[in-house]
Amino acid sequence: MKENSNYFEVNKDTWNKKVAIHAQSEMYNLEAFKKGKSSLMPYELKALGNVKGKSLLHLQCHFGQDTLSWSRMGATCVGVDISDEGVKLAKQLNEELNLDAKFVCCNVLDTSQHITESFDIVITSYGTIGWLPDLKPWAKMISERLKVGGTFYIVEFHPIAWMFDYVDGKPKMKYHYSQDEVIYEEYEGTYANHNSKMVSKEYGWNHGLSEVVNSLIEAGLQIEYLNEYDESPYDVFPDLVKTESGMFKMEKQLFPMIFEIKATKKKKPL
């Protein structure tokens, strides 16, 4: 992990700068959120159903909108994020909205060093695992934080989507489907505001589906299902078209845009 510390620091600095820009963006629509609009998407709502009375750990929560949306639905929530600015805004929103979520600032891989309780649900969503060099410690941490019989859920952009370089606005296939080597990108703007003059400096890694699934199985989780979908709930790739369902897809959709996995922590042997 030490050899990756510089990568994490650069990413943390970028995410700290993104917070203020994203909080003002149409995509995050903070004013509507404050008035009661949920930030959650159909995939995670269908997968987790009624969360009232359940404890929920949200990994890589940015500035907490999804965490607070689950809190509004009656879950007891803890959000984790590497960004000081993200956690600061999340705490402000939690107080302003009179909710009872908690937020912890740390590298997601260090979660168990900061949080000791176990949860009914652990969730991560949309653009999270690509910031991690190795999914084995990630999956181990998830298993540590899940109650026996608890649910882990991930909905994430499909690894095929990350084989392309989008920096010039046109997708160009450049990276391996499951690439161990770090990928560095530097560009103006963010996915929520392409016109921003902020320079994003980002280190990331590509993880194929087999790596995601096998890391979870190795950590003691039982996969309930793996689904792939041709639509994305977010307009974050070039030239996407909005569908009747409100999702986004490419004009010629030749590969899935997102996947979801639901898993359960196995019961301890008798």
Automatic annotation (TrEMBL):
Keywords: Methyltransferase, Transferase. Residues 58-154 form the Methyltransferase type domain. One of its GO terms (molecular function) is S-adenosylmethionine-dependent methyltransferase activity. It comes from the Bacteria. SUPFAM superfamilies: S-adenosyl-L-methionine-dependent methyltransferases. Coiled coil: none annotated. It holds the Pfam family Methyltransf_11. GO terms for biological process: methylation. This is Methyltransferase domain-containing protein. It comes from Winogradskyella endarachnes.
